[in-house]
Design a protein that fits this description.
This protein is mainly beta. It is built from 7 helices and 19 strands. The strands form 3 sheets. The protein has an 11-stranded mixed β-sheet. A 4-stranded antiparallel β-sheet has the order 6-7-8-9, covered by helices on one side.
């Protein structure tokens, strides 16, 4: 599963530009220590408008022993353009800058400033930063709380339409509790999500999911229902919650479970839908390995027949297969939050 996740870090400091064809594959890591080095990632997929054409931009934040990293991917039907920035912890490293590259004859620029960035325990800064993607003097995507400073520095006009966050993947760590934050629907409110899972001791294994301290999902008899899905409601928005804790129960050495929160219905902004939109390229659709997509038919029938499962098949890919199935249509719909939950040693 980890081979499907991008690495932000190159072999040296600074920014790196690469161009990959759609047939390229990431090299699979065989070392468990190497996998651990790259697993603290947060990846966000945005639908943007670039030169009046819908493009999908992926932002990945990373953290390892060498510091933090950032990569910007522009996903095209044939090629993938990527700019990587290694944020070194050394005091003499310049924590702001820009890099330009060409995408089909159009000049793209990435501007960043993390000189005042504040981090919690994850790879993504919480405040004091900005990252901007600019195309022909128009800001395509602007992240961070220093937007006023970004406009003063870049001298570019505002985007034709506001970008839409389509999906977010992140890694969470804990022993019993796993926490994150997310926005569902169009209210803009940020919700606190807490996943509590009892898998050890004398108590029967049980799974609880809380949103803003309210229990929205409870799964008992987890030994038989370690994989399943259920629809809950948050602020009037229906959300389908998928869970897969097979590894925690039967393969603890692998150490991770997978959860997905998928909003139901069309929540893509009207502005983004008003411009021509290309289908998501396969590299964006595939949350896991390409073999996951070949089993869509089986999983569709499985989901229609049951809301939970006691199958002993490979659990690390099942939720990812469902996620791939959710994006089967040519235009993305709703928002997906995918969590890799790791037990702390």
């Amino acid at each position: 599963m980890l081979e499907a996740l991008p690495s932000c870090f190159g072999e040296s400091g600074g920014a790196h530009l690469t161009k990959k064809t759609s047939g390229a594959h990431l090299t699979k890591k065989t070392s468990s220590s190497g996998s651990r080095m790259t697993q603290n990632l947060i990846t966000c997929l945005y639908q943007t408008t670039l030169a009046e054409i819908c493009k999908f931009v992926t932002i990945t934040w990373c953290k390892n022993l060498m510091g933090h990293g950032l990569s910007v991917h522009i996903n095209d039907s044939r090629c993938h353009y990527m700019c990587k920035v290694d944020m070194k912890p050394w005091s003499f490293w310049k924590k702001h800058g820009s890099k330009s590259f060409d995408v089909k004859g159009k000049k793209m620029e990435v501007f960043w400033d993390v000189s005042k960035a504040k981090y919690l325990c994850g790879p993504e800064p919480q405040e004091g930063f900005y990252v901007a993607l600019v195309c022909e003097n128009e800001i395509v995507l602007l992240l961070g709380d220093m937007q006023e400073e970004a406009y003063k520095k870049i001298h570019a006009r505002k985007p034709f339409s506001e970008p839409t966050l389509l999906s977010r993947r992140e890694h969470v760590f804990g022993k019993r509790y796993y926490t994150t934050k997310a926005q569902f629907g169009e209210s803009g409110r940020t919700h606190d999500i807490v996943i509590e899972c009892h898998t050890g001791g004398s108590k029967e294994p049980r799974l609880d999911v809380r949103v803003d301290k309210k229990v929205v999902l409870q799964v008992k008899h987890l030994m038989w229902k370690f994989r399943g899905n259920q629809i809950v409601e948050v602020d009037g928005t229906p959300i389908q919650v998928f869970w897969d804790v097979h590894n925690w129960l039967f393969n603890p050495s692998n150490g991770h479970a997978v959860f997905m929160f998928q909003t139901l219905g069309d929540h893509v902004s009207n502005n983004a839908a008003a411009v021509p939109c290309q289908p998501l390229p396969p590299s964006v659709l595939q949350w896991s390995s390409p073999s996951a997509l070949s089993r869509r038919g089986h999983d569709r029938a499985f989901l229609q027949s049951s809301s939970s499962s006691s199958s002993s098949s490979n659990s690390s890919s099942s939720v990812l297969q469902w996620a791939s199935m959710e994006t089967e249509t040519s235009s993305p719909s709703g928002f997906s939050l995918l969590l890799y939950a790791w037990k702390s040693e």
